[in-house]
Amino acid sequence: MGSAPATTSTNALPRDQARFGLLLAAVAACLIAALLVTRPKPLTLGGQLRPIARSLDARQRRHQAQLVRALCKHQDCACVEAAAHAGLDVDAGREVLGLLTAAKTCSFPDLAGVRAEALVRAGSGEEGRSQASALLKKNDRDAHALSAVGLAAYQEGTWPVAAELMDRAVKAGAGDGARELLGLARYSMNDLAGARSAFQGILAAEPHDLDATYNLALVAQKQDRYGEARKLYLTVLRANPKHRQARYNLALLAHSIGAQEEAQHNLALLEQAAPGDPMVQRLREALARPPDRKGQVLTLGSKAATPAR
User: From the centroid of its chain, how far is CA 183?
Assistant: First the structure.
């Protein structure tokens, strides 16, 4: 009689364990089903990422290109943020806007400023500046909003305003797109030391950046640093033999010190790369004049130098 309860408890234990196991399995199945239902759909960004990646490669911004490709193995919001910042650095405003539209569910801290700057870079200056101005009323250190209004000022030819705004943007943490515009604005003001500092700042992080290398060559040529300018132009041309502006300026540089054989050689290469281009005739006329140590420099540094459409 005394042993009966123990026998009943022992028999009930396996049944309780089985029920508990079934309950756990049911809970797990429900959780998995809920995750499958609520998990966001993977982003499809290939069409927006590829042109940004191509622009990074064309500029030879190797470190940034490597970072973007690493982050974009999984096309998620971290990828969108990195690619959007990279797109602004290479003046790919339209591509950045397309990327943000394709990833409209994504958000990151400076998204509104990035969108405003992308609008100005894409040619929608009025809309971009309006959005940037609204952001700056709330936070006057928004790096991309400062870049947006600074770019608009640059496109309008108000160099001192552009330089002041881009300097603030760089100090607030803006990327190389802002630093490039700072250099171009200072170059336009004939502040060659300031321009040199800005372009060297880009090359410190991206030593192969072709636009920064070309722009630094312009500064060196204006400063009458023949050896440095020649080396920089040749660096650009080794990477891109069809770079017309670098070829044009290299010919002028050679002509300015009386190196006529080199000047004519570069004229021939320019004509071969761009037959029928008016630039060829302008160069031919310049080389026909007596050498001038302060020869005409072709100041085409960046797509950002074009006026707003």
Answer: 15
What tokens does 221 get? 């040529």
Q: Chain centroid to CA 34: how far? A: 39
Mark the ranges of the chain whose per-residue pLDDT is less than 50. Answer: 1-9, 35-39, 300, 302-309
Q: What is the distance between the alpha carbons of residues 185 and 169, in angstroms, rounded to a whole number?
A: 13
185, 166 contact by CB (below 8 A):
yes
Q: How many Cβ atoms from other residues are within 10 Å of residue 177's Cβ?
A: 27
Tokens in use for 97?
A: 């806007």
CA–CA distance, 68 with 62 (Å, rounded to integer): 10
pLDDT confidence of residue 300: 47
- How many angstroms separate the CA atoms of 184 and 299, rounded? 9
Torsion of CA 111, 99, 215, 181, to 10 degrees: -30
Q: What backbone torsions phi and psi does residue 16 show, to the nearest 5 degrees? A: -65, -40
- Sorted by where each starts, the structural domains of the chain and their CATH numbers stand as 46-224+294-305 (1.25.40.10), 225-293 (1.25.40)
pTM, entire model: 0.82
